[in-house]
Write a structure and sequence with these properties.
Elements: H1 2-13, H2 15-20, H3 25-51, E1 56-63, E2 68-74, H4 76-99, H5 106-125, H6 129-147, H7 154-185, H8 190-193, H9 197-202, H10 206-220, H11 229-232, H12 238-244, H13 249-259, H14 261-264, H15 268-290, H16 295-316, H17 319-350, H18 366-380, H19 386-398, H20 409-433, H21 450-468, H22 470-473, H23 475-486, H24 503-520, H25 522-532, H26 537-559, H27 564-584, H28 600-618, H29 623-643, H30 647-668, H31 681-706, H32 715-726, H33 731-739, H34 741-763, H35 768-775, H36 790-813, H37 821-839, H38 841-847, H39 852-872, E3 882-887, E4 891-896, H40 898-928
Antiparallel strand pairs: 1-2, 3-4
Helix pairs in contact: 1-3, 1-5, 3-4, 3-5, 4-5, 4-12, 4-17, 4-21, 4-23, 5-6, 6-7, 7-10, 10-13, 12-17, 13-16, 15-16, 15-20, 16-17, 16-20, 17-18, 17-19, 17-21, 17-23, 18-20, 18-21, 19-21, 19-24, 20-24, 27-31, 28-29, 29-30, 30-37, 30-40, 32-33, 33-34, 34-39, 34-40, 36-37, 37-38, 37-40, ...
């Protein structure tokens, strides 16, 4: 479980800086550092086993049916990368403590940093490619937060969006490629995939999988033509740049190339795709870096160039080149992180990163200058520093490589790349620290505090130590990692500073001399570079995004024009095409099940159903009439359920029909009674054809299913276990409250949301344009002189207690007989609806006040608590507990926990219906502008008639 803790600690620890920032910046940084240091200590505790050749693994089942398991393994490659991620991460935390301004929210920064750190550690430890993909996408998301940390800066927001767009698209590509690998091998475990190289390369899916995987690697590691996001990510704070762009995010693609090297390398496609892209990127980025005036921009392109060099080395496909690549990963992490920190020190203390405003800082900032000279020399490949050794190893492999039958092509391109690499390294050092002093600087230069230069100094010391004693300091780790990458094919490689007088040494010396010459010619070369006016990748990206957005907008305006008819026609048309295509593409035979003679009742019901449907189509412009026909259809469907021995469904259907018809009648009262003709004849013809074909298709599909014996139905399980498993004999109710209780729980939540949506829509109906329409509304039909007829009032008074008792009876019997909480809630709602319709909402609500929102909330809460209690008792969510108790004179009475769940269902139904009624009534009252009624009926025989006013005397007062 140690590996699991190493992977999870950064995620869990991300809460530490968010909480400890209240104790001060030092406490926040200390808590963050302790999290990383703890993970690093745990990692180092496993190092002896790994260095001895053992692979440490942890396997935790997560979603085994999907092949997604929390499987981790630690070999030498994972150890090296995890060590760099955590080790340099710890140095960056120290550096960031002194770099960040007091106005910068440090807690948020360190929380984002730990999230990113955890995602990177997860990538290098994953032994399951699906798990690796999860962590891969988390790096894109967390790096978006880090790059856009200074969200007040437009360039920060744009850089974050660009990085997320490019790496996110690469992530989608990688998903496809790795899933194909898993399909080829038959396993999603990396340890299995790495042993299946021959099967993978022999598969016809090898090349598509390789292309998709390289899409993910190249976008993440900023290889041409996906490189442009990295320079714009420099808008992030320098600690982010030092971390993401030296040892972590941009190395994720390199890590995956190294990890999959045993399975994918060794083919011509690998050589030309990986080696070719890496070599071109190395040369192209080195040239661009020389002409960058921003320190971080120069370092960004130098990073792209060195990533290209690493990609090139792994692309060569030879064990020796892989050893050189492994060694340079370590070396690049040391000097590049040190240089990014150095650039941050210059920006922090001098106030600018512009090389045109810098120079002569060696005497003003001697510590920073010394560190920059050493790190820059390592980047340029100057002996006796570590960069020189890995550069020599790279040159040794380059001179032996040949492409397209041209043995000189690769050495020449590599020579150009290292020449420009030396030149931009010299320009960084000389342009910042040497040359004449400026008359003035944006800020008074001085060395940074110890906390800022110490992390950089430690990395520089490591670069010098590796250069002076490579076999002692880095040799064992490099050999162990190379063995893990190549499967032991690399053998033991003795790292040494001196390789003798040979061609690689001559090329290296020529590159250094050429770099000095290029630096001396920088100004005229920069003018030529500017005059060339080469296209800027960012501009091309912005234009591409703008063109894509414009095309999407035009397509949206064309398709989504607000016509629901068009949307439905497209959906129906597409569904019919898929259905017809599926029908025609496969053989089919007539079903063998015999048909039954249709009884007279079924024929009558069918005629009514078809007639009602046709009437709705023909009379749909008469809204009230259409509503009546719809109610006839609902009634016929209910009778069909009765005929098919489904009383629960029949009760539910008829209750829903009554409630919806009543509410729709109330709503239609305020709407025009007819709808205008809005569709052309051609559109109506199109809709008719789609509806006819779709209806006939569904009828044919239903007929085909009924004529065939399908697979065994789950209903047999429900019949067998309804009483023994759920404690009830009403199988339908047991399914709703036990077997599929979670579905029912979701449905009552949806019902509550629907009621709240009605509330949200109608609560503001008296404001704005809708309020103006309500104020101007006039009845379009003659009204009855009685708003609350006496006969209706009396009838509903008698029905209310009777319906309430019926609802309670249906509720209590539901577990063993037709009924249940949903039907009971509908029955009670109908009784209340009739009462409110008879005597008016205001009068009824004064006598039965209720918070309908609270009813919904109470119902959902009771239902949820029923399930929670089940889980607390060790049973599945909403699993019923039941007991039958014998009561004298009554008999056996069943007590079930499902009763509580049904209570929640009933309250939710009543609350939802009454909430809809409340707001529909409110809108109607505002529209009709009538005072609320104070009496239950307009004419009450029990009340004495009002005394008429005395008539005036004839002839006036004096008569």
């Amino acid at each position: 479980m140690t590996l699991a803790w190493i992977a999870l600690l950064p995620f869990l620890g991300a809460l530490a800086p968010a909480l400890t920032i209240r104790l001060g910046r030092n406490a926040c940084a200390l808590a963050t550092g302790l999290v990383t240091a703890t993970a690093l200590v745990l990692l180092l505790s496993l190092a002896p086993q790994v260095m001895a050749g053992e692979v440490v693994s942890t396997r935790i089942a997560w979603f085994p049916t999907l092949g997604l398991n929390f499987n981790l393994f630690l070999d030498a490659l994972g150890l090296m990368f995890a060590g760099m991620i955590l080790g340099i991460g710890l140095l960056v935390i120290i550096y960031a403590r002194f770099y960040l301004n007091k106005s910068d929210p440090m807690g948020r920064f360190f929380a984002f940093l730990l999230l990113f750190q955890g995602a990177m550690v997860g990538i290098v430890l994953s032994d399951n490619i699906l798990l690796l993909l999860v962590f891969w996408e988390l790096t894109s998301l967390s790096s978006f937060l880090l790059i856009g940390y200074w969200r007040h800066l437009p360039e920060g927001r744009q850089g974050a969006r660009m990085a997320l767009t490019i790496t996110g698209m690469g992530g989608l590509s990688l998903i496809g490629g790795l899933l194909m690998l898993g399909q080829i091998v038959g396993s999603y475990d990396l340890s299995v995939i790495l042993q299946s190289g021959e099967a993978i390369q022999a598969s016809p899916m090898y090349l598509p999988a390789l292309l998709l995987i390289l899409g993910g690697c190249f976008t993440k590691s900023a290889q041409f033509p996906f490189h442009f996001w990295l320079p714009h990510a420099m808008a992030a704070p320098t600690p982010v740049s030092a971390y993401l762009h030296s040892a972590t995010m941009v190395k994720a693609g390199i890590f995956l190339l190294a990890r999959l090297w045993p399975a994918l390398s060794g083919t011509e496609a690998w050589f030309y795709l990986v080696g070719g892209v890496g070599l071109f990127t190395m040369v192209f980025a080195a040239i661009v870096a020389l002409f960058k005036d921003d320190l971080k921009g120069l370092l960004a392109y130098s990073t792209i160039s060195h990533l290209g060099m690493l990609t090139f080395l792994f692309g060569l496909g030879t064990p020796a080149a892989a050893v050189a690549g492994v060694f340079h990963i370590i070396n690049h992490a040391t000097f590049k992180a040190a240089l990014f920190m150095n650039a941050g020190i210059v920006d922090h203390e001098v106030g600018t990163r512009d090389l045109r405003k810098l120079g002569g800082l060696y005497t003003l900032m001697p510590i920073a200058a010394t560190l920059a000279v050493l790190a820059g020399a390592a980047m340029a490949g100057i002996p006796p520093l570590n960069g020189f050794i890995s550069k020599e190893m790279m040159l040794e492999e380059a001179v032996q490589a040949s492409a397209f039958g041209l043995p000189w092509l690769i050495p020449v391109m590599v020579m150009v790349g290292i020449l420009f690499s030396a030149a931009y390294a010299f320009r960084y050092v000389v342009g910042v620290y040497f040359g004449p002093k400026r008359e003035s600087y944006p800020a008074k230069p001085h060395d940074a505090p110890f906390g800022m230069w110490a992390p950089s100094a430690l990395l520089v010391i490591l670069a010098v130590a590796i250069g002076l004693a490579p076999a002692l300091v880095a040799g064992p780790l490099v050999n162990a990692v190379a063995a893990a990458v190549t499967g032991g094919a690399a053998g033991e490689k003795h790292l040494a500073l001196w390789h003798g007088f040979n061609l690689p040494l001559a090329m290296s010396l020529a590159a250094v001399v050429g770099g000095v010459i290029l630096l001396s010619l920088h100004r005229p070369a920069a003018r030529i570079w500017t005059a060339l006016g080469l296209p800027d990748a960012k501009t091309l990206f912005d234009r591409t995004v703008a063109a894509g957005a414009g095309a999407a907008r035009k397509t949206t305006e064309l398709v989504h024009n607000g016509s629901l008819q068009r949307y439905l026609a497209m959906i129906m048309g597409a569904a019919l095409l898929v259905a017809v295509g599926g029908f025609l593409s496969a053989p089919h035979v007539e079903g063998l099940r015999p048909t039954l003679a249709a009884p007279g009742a079924a024929i009558v019901a069918w005629v009514l159903l078809v007639g009602g449907t046709a009437a709705v189509v023909l009379g749909h412009r008469q809204r009230y009439l259409a509503l009546i026909f719809i109610s006839v259809i609902g009634l016929v469907v209910s009778l069909g359920f009765v005929y098919l021995s489904a009383p629960d469904l029949a009760l539910t259907q008829i209750s829903v029909e009554v409630v919806t018809i009543l509410l729709l009648l109330l709503a239609l009262n305020l709407m025009p009674k007819t709808s205008p003709v809005e569709s052309s004849r051609a559109r109506r013809t199109r809709d008719g054809v789609l509806a006819t074909v779709g209806g006939l298709g569904m009828a044919a599909a239903t007929w085909a299913l009924l004529r065939r014996d399908g697979p065994a139905s789950i209903s047999e399980f429900h019949w067998a276990n309804s009483y023994s498993g759920g404690g009830g004999t009403n199988v339908v109710n047991v399914i709703l409250v036990d077997f599929r209780g979670f579905d029912t729980f979701g449905e009552i939540i949806v019902l509550g949301i629907a009621a709240l949506t009605i509330f949200a829509l109608l609560e503001t109906a008296d404001r704005g344009a809708s309020g103006q329409r309500l104020a101007n509304w006039m009845p379009d039909q003659r009204r009855s002189p009685e708003r609350h007829p006496m006969m209706l009032v009396v009838a509903t008074r008698l029905l209310l207690p009777l319906a309430s008792v019926v609802g309670l009876y249906i509720f209590l019997r539901g577990h063993n007989e037709p009924g249940g909480g949903f039907i009971a809630g509908l029955v009670v709602s109908i009784a209340l609806l009739m009462q409110y319709m008879a005597s008016g909402y205001a009068w009824s609500n004064r006598r039965l006040p209720a918070d309908h929102h609270a009813l919904i909330g109470f119902g959902v809460t009771v239902a949820a608590l029923t399930g929670v209690v089940s889980m607390m008792l060790g049973a599945p969510f909403l699993k019923s507990a039941y007991e039958y108790v014998s009561i004298p004179l009554i008999g056996d009475v069943g007590l079930s926990s499902a009763l509580a769940f049904d209570i929640g269902v009933a309250f939710t139904v009543v609350g939802a219906v009454m909430l809809a009624l409340h707001h529909l009534s409110g809108v109607a009252g505002r529209a009709e502008k009538l005072p609320p009624n104070d009496l239950p009926m307009d004419v009450d025989p029990s009340r004495p008639p009002p005394t008429p006013a005395p008539a005036p005397a004839p002839g006036g007062a004096g008569a």
